[in-house]
Amino acid sequence: MKTIMLFLTGIFFSISFAQNLENKDIPQVVKDKFASSYTKTTHLKWTKEKSNYEASFRTGNKEMSVNFDEKGNIVETETEIKSSELPIEVRNSVSKDYSGYKITEAAKIESNGIITFETEVTRGKDKKDLIYDGLGVLKSKGKKDQGGNNKD
Question: Which of these, 39, 118, 37, 114, lies nearest to 81 by C-alpha position?
Fold first, then answer.
């Protein structure tokens, strides 16, 4: 599913290679924080990105990912949302700046109290990941190849 790729390819389009981890490889403090913060999850998968531990999972009918530091502190959360849940300013910016593209995925990202919105836009085989602030200002963009991997 494309949405899972969204969470696994990196939240800010940095070129970092996620390392799949076994449950035994996760520090107990991180596992404890995850278990106390997210009680009803399925499809849990752990990866390591740089020095953080990322849990990708489903909760209810939404996909999420949460990054923890080695002390179990939540560094960042990313929650799948419907494109209609994007702020109108973000949807307007996409329509204006990426005319002819369709929003195929959307997510809300919270990091250090700052909320941004990630969109995947597609036109034919051309896919781009875009990060906007809540006012519709483009903060970052990346291009995906046909396999869904970030190129930029």
Answer: 118
